[in-house]
Amino acid sequence: MMTRKNNWLLTAIQLGLLAWSGTALAADKVYVANEGADTVSVLDAASFKALANVRVGKMPHNVQVSPDGKLVWVTNNGEPDQSADTSSHTGMAKGDHDAMGKPGAVWAIDTRSDAVVAKVPVGMHPAHVVVSPDGRFAYVTNGGNNTVSVIDTSAQRLVATIPVGQFPHGLRFSPDGKQVYVANLKGGTVSVIDTASQKEVGQVPAGKGPAQVGFTPDGLLAFVSLSEENAVAVIDPATRKVIRKVAVGSVPIQLYATPDSRTLLVANQGTRKKPGRTVSMIDLESFKVAKTVVTGAGAHGVVVDREGRYAYVTNTYANSVSVLDVKGRKVTKTVPVGKGPNGISMTP
Which of 46, 61, 54 is nearest to 212 (CA)? Predict the structure, then answer.
């Protein structure tokens, strides 16, 4: 006879097996584009251990996990040179220059198998890729063409090419998915793309060397890092105007707001000769740097997890990723990855 206690135990076991077969296997992962190694490192977000090393195209610059967590999109410069020793890349070698002279591509990695499952040609010198909140489209900046490529993620093909400013680099969707902001590195502006018409509808004069843009999750503020001003410009999305600038470290590149929209993290890369080693944490009420956290040489890419607990920072010149405790404002772990880690993303 089944007692209440035994029935409860059986139910608990069944629930446990269900969790083990589903949720437990869907561990959060962090993906890192190793530009100097032609690989993408896969890290376990809980243990911070390396899970895989995926071979991709030449000089992968940026990665982006789709909103449903099923695919990782990676920008690169086409098929890798199988005869080349990618581990010996230093700066811009001859092979790198040759790759930059050819159209690039975006490759897709399946997050279950961590294998490449699609390759889509785009424009010249693709830099960053982002995926729309509904997962339907991926937008890619083509620095060599001054355009943004639009990819249908289901059909895995190019469906539009949008002219923008000079040498577009970083880009991000507004939280509502209605607009894409694009940092025009050599144009000094931020292009605004209307996603319904898939056209540029304006440019915001920003400053010198716009490298990457970002939004607070509440959509009230937008930002652009000014790599040649050592500052971040704060943009009001309603008026499309810069409302203030905040001084940060040397050569700021990527930035990312916490889920509560209260803090902006800015990676300060510096230069190869004089590397930056910090992340500026800007309080978005006072618009002042509340803390400067030391990470590693060439702090470049940054992403924050969904709980706002950890930020992951790529250290381009140190070949590592720093794990930053957001609340504690300190680095708790440094993880070795491939050569020249650049863009970084994680499962939602």
Answer: 61
